[in-house]
Amino acid sequence: MKLFYAPGTCALACWIAFEWAGADDYTVEKVVLGSKELYEVNPLGMVPAIKFENDEILTQAGAILNFIAQKYPSHNLGADEDIMDIFKFNEIMDFLSADFHPAFWPMFSPNRFTTEDSKEAQDAVVEAAFKRIDIAMNHLDHLIGDTNHVYKDKRTVADAYAYVMALWSKMTPKSYTEYPNLARFMESMKEDSTVQQVIAASKQ
Ligand SMILES: N[C@@H](CCC(=O)N[C@@H](CS)C(=O)NCC(=O)O)C(=O)O
After folding, report:
1. Which of 21, 73, 79, 118 is the most buried (most CB within 10 A)?
2. What distance in angstroms lies between residue 120's CA and the mean position of ligand 1's atoms?
3. Nearest CA to ligand 1 atom 16
4. What are the structural domains of the chain?
5. Atom of ligand 1 lying closest to residue 108 CA
């Protein structure tokens, strides 16, 4: 398997998850966002994407993270067994991919959210995004509560996913350091040697 990633993106969550899972059957390839090469891999021009030995390519961070959790079950990186535990895990993963992540899209690509080219119009989109990001960050802070994890009090792929995306809040007026539970979670993730190795390697 080959994971396509770009530095600073949600794809790094998949890389961290592979490492947490002890996977030795994958490689990584850096791609440039917006490049022709990436559109050839994924017609949406987005990372993460995984290419399998049979040349099949699958995408979507949440689906890939769930795949990793299930492919390496001995590392227990996914939901607990009870049906309500599975529901809660899926609820969190869907929040991360369908609410948390999209809250940042207008900040990164304001041109996709207005037909106006002016700087004022683009800035207004970014300003509006900050409000939605704050709501999403508050919810993530609430999910973490008094634990150091996003799902229950247990390390799962959701931690990696939340961590790499919450780092983007440093580009907003209210960084993760201003949300108490999230700030504590981020500090504990920063101390994780695997997280450190992946972030450093992704910048090379
Ligand atoms: N629905 C996709 C979205 C992935 C996504 O937005 N990836 C970003 C990086 S974090 C990207 O590749 N952006 C490039 C672009 O929007 O052109 C997923 O959840 O994996």
Report:
1. 79
2. 25
3. 46
4. 2-76+197-202 (3.40.30.10), 83-192 (1.20.1050.10)
5. 16
